[in-house]
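Why run this: before we spend reagent on co-expression, it is cheaper to look at a predicted model of the complex and decide which construct boundaries make sense. The entries below are exactly what would go into the expression plan.
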Amino acid sequence: MLRIEKLSKTYRTGDKALTEVSVAVPEGQIMGLIGPSGAGKSTLIRCINRLVEPTAGKVMLGEVDLARLGTGELRRQRRRIGMIFQEYSLVERLTVMENVLSGRLGYVPFWRSWLRRFLPEDIERAYRLLDRVGLVDQADKRADALSGGQRQRVGIARALAQEPDLLLVDEPTASLDPKTSRQIMRLLTEICAERGLPAIVNIHDVPLAQQFMQRIVGLRDGRIVFDDRPDVLGESALTTIYGAEDWQAMRQGDDEQAEAEADAARRMAVLAR
Amino acid sequence: MSQPAYPTAWRRPPQIVKDRRWRLALQIGILAYLVLAIGSLEVNWERVAIGLERGQRFVMGFLQPDFASRWSDISRGLVESLTMTLTSTVVGVLISVPIGIGAARNMVPRPIYLVCRGIIAVSRSLQEVIIAIFLVAMFGFGPFAGFLTLSFATIGFLAKLLADDIEEIDETQAEAIRATGASWWQLVNYAVQPQVMPRLIGLSLYRLDINFRESAVIGIVGAGGIGATLNTAIDRYEYDSAGAILLIIIAIVMVAEYGSSYLRKFLQ
Amino acid sequence: MSGPEHHSQVWTYRTPRARLLIWTGWVALVALFVWCWQLMTRDTIWFFVQDAPRQAVDIGSRMVPPRWEYVPELLVPMWDTLNIATLGTIGGVILAVPVAFLAARNTSPSPRLLRPIALFIIVASRSINSLIWALLLVAIIGPGILAGIVAIALRSIGFVGKLLYEAIEETDPLQVEAIEATGASGAQVLNYGIVPQIMPAFWAISTFRWDINIRESTILGLVGAGGIGLKLQASLNVLAWGQVTVILILILGTVIVSEWVSARIRHAII
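The model came back. Tokens follow.
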């Protein structure tokens, strides 16, 4: 259970990224976070595991207030929070296995990680996770030899290797094609359901969010302006989140893309015949 | 239904040398070399122990430099070094421009190209200090030999980079100028010069910096400059004066680096 | 530097003020050059300069034929030269790595205190040529190969340190952030997030510096720091120009081979 209370973040430049945001994510819930760029989605997610330092407010994970921890204790708490980034956040020049095992770094002493001598159960877990995301035979490849979708699967395996109590997911599909995006979102939701993991997914693609999320929170200018089930998210709510013009433009873009896809499908069908 | 068994051990696969035997051979080879090389070191530890005391005096000299007692020597050496640096850079740049154009394959006929590339190769492959030895033998001691050395070294450095630059210029622009019926000189003036000029200025400033550093070295073999003063100071075990000279060199290099980056920004 | 002033009156290349500034700059440069030239040649004995071509012909005629019998005597000094360069590079790289991590903005543990110190070490090492380091070290720890190795190492710190810290600052922060988010310690973040990213640069810089060090170590003997330079100095002292030719050819050959080797290694790594 994650409870955020009156979280605020003001950057040193004076930009107010978040203003008194309060939200709670219960066990097993997948929450989508939508909003225009610059609304503070990314800041909110990074304030939870303190890659960005919040200015005020509380971040309660169970009984611990993450916003008020010293460096050592923060490291121990970060192990409980798995984070999944855009595809490029794998360490490119390490092997797939090392990338997955790096999820265990918070649990092993430095000499073990330096010599790559992880515990047998860590290695077994890493193989099991790689099998779960369908990449067990790629373990010895270097991460930069993988495709975008494969990298994202490794990223998921790395986050799960931490045995987390919470998943933070930052734009998981930003640089993937539509089909791979859906596969990745399906995998994510399945895994969360299997383990009863709560997750916050920062996502820019509204139809994708509506399809896969159990709950949607809309951010605008650092404040929560929408918080409900995805089927309630309608025209008017989207206008509040994105502003009238942007929303129209976005929908138009979506329509164009859908049209193009349909067109391509038609041509393929013709070709197939 | 039981879970499938997963391996419990994993080793990072080798990244560069994939074959096990080659890897072993390489490791043994490196080890053998290190043993041989370190074995052939003949270190006189007594001498080193005595030296450590001197080293301490040098560090003290560096921390408490003495600018005053040898100031006339230091200032003469500095003036020689600085004047040598500037004149040799200017002359070197002036000579390296025609040679650089001559060494660009797309600008000149083949015989000229070969001659210019030959000059560049000779200048680049010889150490400044070795050139200085010869020029001192020919022209006598003093900064004039140093000036010639640095000019010669500048030509090799600058003409090569310039030639490579010209060979990479945008051919379509040169084509456009050629199509207007321009002569070879106009081609250089309108197509090559604008594209290469900013980089030429940047490289000249960079070379100015290198020439100053080198001017401190060639004095050791008699080509004038601050290096001669430094050599004398160390020979006389005057570490506080030597420390002062080294600090001056470091300061000038820092100023030159900072100044040239500022100037480059200003010119662009 | 003929500007396009022969164009029509209406169109000018730069504003009048900028042109004035640039022309003033050129005139100042010429004046500075003339002044420096006079200052520099104040003590020049022009008789020697006029005599130079004759000297050149004289030296040239003594340099041929090369005295090939001298080659066997040069093999041991050449081996020493290679060792000075290689061991010096290894030592320099070992010292440069911590300096680079202290100097890089994103890994420096204390940007206020340690970073300026590390940057000063880099500048000091870079400003002073290895021959000057050798001069000092020969005075301090005595003539010999050790002084040469230490001199090469001290000079290499600045070069390797500067290029390496720039490589560290250019690493992808997202990859580092991802490792931080797993709860890794500082040392683990360096080991998993930063080191893999700079490894290619590290090897390229090291072999590049080794190549330069081969060149530089050939002359260290001139000040007594061991290697082939000692033989060069000895031959110059007795005016044995035939031997000098042999030494120069040997140096040139070694430099070309080492350049080829380092290019091959860099090619294999990247």
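DSSP finds ten helices and no strands in chain C. The two ends of chain C are 42 Å apart (CA to CA). Bring this page to Monday's planning discussion.
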